[in-house]
Amino acid sequence: MTDIQRPEARSPRGFQDRRGSDLSAERRIIARVSEVYERWGFEGLETPAFEYVDALGKFLPDTDRPNEGVLALEDDDDQWIALRYDHTAPLARFAAQNWETLPKPYRRYAYGPVWRNEKPGPGRLRQFWQCDADTVGSDRPEADAEILAMGVEGLLATGLTPDQAVIRVSNRKLFDGLFDAGGITDTHQRLTALRAIDKFDRLGIEGVRLLLGEGRLDESGDYTKGANLPSNLIGGVETFLASVSNSEASRSEVLDTIANIGAGLGEAGDAALKELAAIDRALNAMGVAQDAVKFDPTIVRGLEYYTGTVFEAELLLETKDEKGRPIRFGSIGGGGRYDDLVARFTGQTIPATGFSFGVSRLAAALRSAGRSGPQTRGPVVVIVFSDDDMQHYLDAVSELRNAGVAAELYLGRAGMKAQFKYADRRGAPAAVILGGDEIAAGEVTIKDLDAGRAQAAAISNNEEWKAARPGQMKVARSALVSTIKSIIE
Amino acid sequence: MTDIQRPEARSPRGFQDRRGSDLSAERRIIARVSEVYERWGFEGLETPAFEYVDALGKFLPDTDRPNEGVLALEDDDDQWIALRYDHTAPLARFAAQNWETLPKPYRRYAYGPVWRNEKPGPGRLRQFWQCDADTVGSDRPEADAEILAMGVEGLLATGLTPDQAVIRVSNRKLFDGLFDAGGITDTHQRLTALRAIDKFDRLGIEGVRLLLGEGRLDESGDYTKGANLPSNLIGGVETFLASVSNSEASRSEVLDTIANIGAGLGEAGDAALKELAAIDRALNAMGVAQDAVKFDPTIVRGLEYYTGTVFEAELLLETKDEKGRPIRFGSIGGGGRYDDLVARFTGQTIPATGFSFGVSRLAAALRSAGRSGPQTRGPVVVIVFSDDDMQHYLDAVSELRNAGVAAELYLGRAGMKAQFKYADRRGAPAAVILGGDEIAAGEVTIKDLDAGRAQAAAISNNEEWKAARPGQMKVARSALVSTIKSIIE
């Protein structure tokens, strides 16, 4: 391969490697949330990473990006295929394709990476994991309530306590009502306005006002075009947002507040109120606490395909960065109803609702909150002294593995000191020493590396060290497995 | 969304959806093989789906495909990125990028989809799963032997019996010796010749002869250019292949056979023999059976980056298609040494060896052999009669879930008959019936659906049916969970 010029060893911008404890923390989230989904009767589905661009649709907020936010390429037969940007659009394609043979309602869960053609920047990843559950073919409010109750159970399963997360629920039709009253009919203008309102929690009322009007210039100097709503309608939206943003109110209190705003919301608003009231009844019947699922009409979500009810999971857990500054993770999941997404293919309306966990973001949040679970331990390392004694080392390592203990033979060519350093780097609980003396005496020396570190810290000088041999014990060769197990357990 | 024209609901050619039992069978393979890898001391790593094209390198056999077999796209900053075609090339990039801080040798395992820009066709998938383990930074034969022994344990962990799979091992340098003797120095010509030999098991000696010569026209009418070796060298290769292809011989017998061919193999051949002999000693020391890992010099593998030792796992299990015709699955995994792959980046040679399970192919093989494990069961289904009794249904379903029983509330709007059909389609073990009478009497009717099917089969007419109510039992409401558990367990 001498003819190949030397490439730089780096991964593409916006993509990350994950290993060790970080990786197992993410896998733990997926395993625990999946366990909840299965217990609630959802069936696994794995669609391929690619969809035809037309099947995927263009529902992402960042329509200013190349290919409108997706990573796409042209197939041999000149058809464009793109990597999924979520698990919902592929589900709609799958459901439409297999509707006749699927059990109805179709309840499926899915996890895996999704890809977005994000503007590269700190913390902006172009590949991240989501873990979704959806019910396709049910218009029942119990379906939405179930997704919400399950989302709450999923959040707890990841290790959060009830006070550390909340799912906020609203219905986009509340704003449809306002837009109808304001004479806004253009769907694109409505969507732009909804996406402006979606930024309420981040930009506050001033930022939203600009985005509902002509537009907004952000700190980075990027200008976002606004929805150009008439000023009286902008005022109406502001009044609405102000009157409903009370995070302490119970679900029924929020519904009362909205009802008291009254006629301004029109038919669409009344429909939204009815749907939310039905979901509240189902949530109460399921015993879902008021502070676990709140109604918050400022929630709208950025994806285009939602048709009414929308969910957003927010982390209340206070997390800090390396410098101890508080981090706001905001949304760690979301979802809602997308009753028209399957109809894109079939023409037949099939109601659907679902929720998606932002696994990568949730893992990052738990990590910086020191809640990402136990550090992963390395294997027991069997030290190598002489190739002539290889048989003894191999026997020891296979004995340990057959006893279910993760173990390995050191396969490098470095000396004993470097091998102990290696065992440390692996996070090994113990090292197994089979020197010539031990082998001759039918014994084995085992070093408890955790105990060793602890004792070593208390030792002041080299002589003491040599005398103490921190954490080391010599036992009969036949006691290898039992001794190691007593150290690990 | 009325303005969107209707797309067709289909996944791109060469991509497949996976659900239900098929999906869980693949996940079972990954879970069991990963458990083996971890017990052998390998640490998880997940690299992103994309790599820069130059970092990925071009080592695939199908260089006639667009982008030489990879799916690639141009990034915003005009750099080409491509989806990984295996887990080895990204590992080399990762190891080169992090070598200073990694424990050495670095032992990692990885699983996930890989993508190939395959010529679409039956059974030719463009996304499939692999599950790899590699040791980077060890030139020890014990490292290769360990990978092989672990591969054997992995095959057994997937549910195969020892007689149903074998890993064949060889060393490419055997042919380097022949090529040296034949005066072939061009690396591309050597690679073309190796890839011709790689097809020996599929095309037989005649096919290989054509591909070592001018070229071969296959059934589909595609012409593959040959290696254009001189005829005497082709003869030499044929003699070699003929003399060594004896699947009954022990590892040491194969080495003797090769040794007896003698000088023809030259220095490279002698080196290959030494390496294979050392691996044989280590395999014996690890107690790896002769029929679990065989030496077979006809094995070469198609990927360019292998530098010497190569592995190939073959399924011996006889499998049949729907029409009962025997299917040949051939290779269900492979690997080998790639001592130059990290050096591509750093210039510093870092020896490496690894093995990859073809998870998707292995799952397909186990499936058609009826060895893919238990069918996945659906949840217990709680039947819905009247919205007024919703509270009773919800209480029942949450009681079951809290007891760890997968259960769901039927969320459609169809009648009782359709709900039982639904429960059947879900593969539900039982249905829970809470009619008005049951609720009033503090009872619940439970239908054991498996028993029901069995008894129903024995019933001849409708009257009998009504009388028998196959599989149904009425118990006290308080006995719901215990009765369901007795049906499931």
UniProtKB/TrEMBL annotation, chains A, B:
It is found in: Cytoplasm. Pfam families: HGTP_anticodon, tRNA-synt_His. GO terms for molecular function: ligase activity. It comes from the Bacteria. SUPFAM superfamilies: Class II aaRS ABD-related (SSF52954), Class II aaRS and biotin synthetases (SSF55681). Its EC number is 6.1.1.21. Homodimer. HAMAP family: His_tRNA_synth. This is Histidine--tRNA ligase. It comes from Brevundimonas terrae.
